[in-house]
Amino acid sequence: MQQSTPIIFDTGAKEVDTIPESAANSTPAAAESSPTAETLPTAFEETDAVAQSLRRARKNPAWMMYYESVIREEKWRKAMDAEIKAIKRNDTWELIDLPDKHKIIVTKHGTIRLLIALAAQNLWLIFQLDVKSAFLHGYLEEECPYEPTFFVKIGEDGRMLIACLYVDNLIFIGNNKGMFSDFKRSMMNEFEMSDLGKMHYFLGLEVVQSNDGIFVSQKKYVQNFLNKFKMQNCNPTNIPVEFGLKLTKAGSGKKMDNTFYKQIMGSLMYLNATRPDIMYIVSLVSRYMECPTEIHLLAAKRILRYLQGTKDFGIFYRKGEKVDLIGFTDSDYAGDQDGRKSTSGYVFMLGTEAVSWSSKKQTVVTLSCTEAEFVTATACVCQAIWLRRILKKL
Fold first, then answer.
1. What is the pLDDT averaged over residues 283-304?
2. Sequence-separated (6 or more) residues with CB below 8 Å from residue 304
3. In this structure, are strands 353-361 and 213-217 parallel, antiparallel, or unpaired?
4. Mean pLDDT, all residues of the chain
5. How far apart are CA 246 and CA 254, in angstroms?
6. Domains contained in the chain, CATH given
């Protein structure tokens, strides 16, 4: 049984560059680091054209565009018809307002990564079930302020089954094949479910399970992302951000289309699920979504150029490593050029692989570097408590 272990905090930890080629060894072209007056108009005229084409293509909402494309395929029509029939047959839901003081709770990506790391360490396979109808079966007779998404069952002789649920997707791991069979049989008898076998794709994460470990990435998502924003043929760069880059709300250059900019930011934020190497810069450039300028868009497009050269990057969880949970935290004192707020950052490692990370601007203005470190350490401790509670159940 996995035991919870002490958390080690290194508040003096320095940022480690995990990029294969050092920034010191790369000399960006002048157009990359400091665009000239001659190069800016061409680059941004092209960006405006892309934004305009996206707006023309998206006169309808995004979901409607995707619906119109898939409704032509028979396999998708059958899948939608099956789900609608299941919903009607079970009389499963009634639309209401969210009760006061209640929140919608879902599974975090951090929980998924932690389960993957545990599965790799204990040489367990990860299996997946898909629920045809994503709604509850039967009536609730009592108030339900939250919906559990993480379940642990411990049987005799140390047998264990761990299940994690996200809407209509369910993954489970454990150390006993008999419990697997009983669990799948009971779930498929109670609900209409499909057995997908070993997990390969979950919440946008591509999972490859091998004899050496488990590799998690978002390669397909990155390629679709670059294609969407016409960056599939861009020149790659070695690092996602210029060294010493400082951004402000005023920025420099003309104002850009904020809808186009928000689309880029939304896609980048979802990519943070497997790419801690871009967490800091994505957090930085996402602060300027309301009124982006040319300099902000240049910083965002540099991230896309970095992704062009690192599509295959992900996290590899090695099998058989019995290691401790270790946390590192640091802060950037008064790094925000507009409000003088600091940036908090932390990362938790289960062995040599990261399972949880964050980079966020602090909500208060601190008056000293020490105070900024305390604010950062507080956020890190909250995450540590959550991770330890999960491990304690195991």
1. 95
2. 225, 226, 229, 231, 234, 264
3. unpaired
4. 79
5. 18
6. 109-216 (3.30.70), 218-314 (no CATH), 316-393 (no CATH)
